[in-house]
Amino acid sequence: MTSNSANADLVDPRGPVFISYRQSDGNELAENLAWGLRAAGIPVWHDQTDLPPGDTENRLAEALSSGISGAVLLVTPEVTNSTVIREVELPRLLELEKNPVFTFAVGSTVEHPYDAGSLHYSAPDQLLGQEQGTLQGLHQARIANIGESAALANAMCRRRMEALRRDIERASGLLRLDVQTRVPPYAMATEGDLVLRLRPPIDGERRPHVGGLHDLHRFLGHLPQLVAIAGASAVQVWGGAHLSVACAIGAALPTTLLGKVDVIDNQGEAWALTGQAPTPTAERQCENVKPPTCISKSGPVLVYVDLLPQRSDAAFEAFSQFRSDFAGIAHLRHRQEGLLVPEQAAAIVGELSSDIRSLANAHNTTDVHLLLRCPYPIALLLGRTLNTLTAHLYEWEDSPTDCPGSNPRYIPSVILRPGAGGSPIYSVTAPPLVGLT
Questions:
Q1: Distance CA 143, CA 74 (A)
Q2: Beta partners for 371?
Q3: What is the torsional sign of CA 35, 40, 46, 49?
């Protein structure tokens, strides 16, 4: 039996990526990389969250045999003092690296002593007592800050898409995107081709973690390329997300780029938008219960999309009264009471998109402030139709820690500029969270 065949069952192209590092000087780097990988759609095995109780060396050995897709070795000056890396982790990773599906990279902070600013590519072998060229031949990247961690994560994700391309072709070109922004992640293999996880909200908050929004900002510009590398012609989205995040993901998969996107809800039902959003018909499903009103002669417009059964207008009314710079306001609601059904998704998104553009055009602006109160599949599919608009998105917060004692309100989240090139997230506008730096 060859090494490749011996390792075949231990390498899972949908499994997590293992992070190997020295805690004494690599802890922060490992955490930043872990969140960068998760935001790029790669599940992560990180000892701070995934190491079960017991003997460390035995638990690590079990983790390395549980079906991982790749690994990143973080090389910092003190890595030379890690017996665990040298004797337990690295030998196993080098054995797994013989499998061509396994993605093994080196993230390094060690600069060349005679060439400031460039990596010392032979340092990993020297620090870990390896034969010259063993680690030097792997992909090495600088990883001194969050931006560099994100770049390495995106490179790892490209490799993941290449490894999964044949599977996606067998699935008739369907790429499965598993999303979650509300609960802490953990290492596991899933059916998702991309498994996007953001930093969860801090305790007591509903809004997305501001650091997670920045992670998403750095990733989303790469999503169309990843879809192309995978050879996908359609995307199916699972899981759940904050509405501003869902809308941003949709904006990265516009109708002008991808034919079909399905969003699977927690009942297993598909909310789909295939091709361009349909033109509204005379039998409209939504109505504007607050006709556009001229607040100022010029400026942005405000649109409140409320598609949930129980009405909740207080936060919207407080928001619109507090701002006096809107040239027009629309309050869009479904005509019928009760829950929406997935079959209505395309028609509703078509109406919402048309009404948003009509209001913006009437006031000669592309600047739209969106307050969303709707099923998350609608938010994602609506994001697919926002090309050429600048959309300011908000999140509802019932216990804002940045203003203790205040009433529930809408808090800025992100600004989208889809179609402008790069990430559809133009900027993160969420306020810093109390106690975080």
A1: 8
A2: 304
A3: positive
d(CA 391, CA 355): 14
The span from the CA of 185 to the CA of 256, in Å, is: 32
Nearest to residue 47, comparing CAs of 111, 38, 57, 183?
Answer: 57
Residue pair 42/177 in contact by the 8 Å Cβ criterion: no
Q: Helix crossing, 146-170 with 23-39: angle to 10°?
A: 50
**Token pair of 192 as six digits:** 């998702």
Structure tokens at 24: 């004494």
Q: Helices H, strands E: what count in the chain? A: 14, 19
Cα–Cα distance measured from residue 315 to residue 93, given in angstroms and rounded to the nearest whole number? 53
pLDDT in tens for each of the 437 residues of the chain? 344 545 556 789 999 999 999 999 999 999 999 999 999 999 998 877 766 656 667 767 777 777 899 999 999 999 999 999 999 899 999 999 999 999 999 999 999 888 878 899 999 999 999 999 999 999 999 999 999 999 999 999 999 999 999 999 999 999 999 999 998 887 776 789 999 999 999 888 889 999 999 999 999 999 999 999 999 999 999 999 999 999 999 999 999 999 999 999 999 999 999 999 999 999 999 999 876 555 667 889 999 999 999 888 888 988 888 777 899 999 999 998 889 999 999 999 999 999 999 999 999 999 999 999 999 999 999 999 999 999 999 999 886 565 655 678 899 999 999 988 899 999 999 988 654 43
One-letter amino acid of 182: R
Task: Identify which of 223, 2, 242, 7 has the alpha carbon closest to the alpha carbon of residue 101.
Answer: 7
Does residue 272 contact residue 261 with C-beta atoms inside 8 Å? yes
Question: Rounded to a whole number, what is the distance in angstroms from the first to the last CA of the chain?
Answer: 53
Longest dimension (CA), the chain: 77
Q: Which of 259, 218, 253, 216 is nearest to 379 (CA)?
A: 253
Q: From CA 278, how far away is CA 283, in angstroms rounded?
A: 13
Taking CA 356 as the corner, what is the angle to CA 355 and CA 359, rounded to the nearest 5 degrees? 80
Sheet with 17-20: strands ordered across:
44-45, 17-20, 70-75, 103-108, 139-142
- What are the residues whose beta carbons fall under 8 Å from the beta carbon of 381, sequence distance 6 or more? 250, 261, 263, 271, 272, 273, 345, 346, 349
Length reported for the chain: 437
- Residue carrying structure tokens 């000056």: 77
Specify the amino acid at residue 135: L
| 8 Å CB contact between 108 and 117 | no
Give how far Cα 156 sits from Cα of 42, 73, 189, Å.
Answer: 8, 13, 16
**Distances in Å between the alpha carbon of 379 and those of 132, 251, 263?**
53, 10, 10
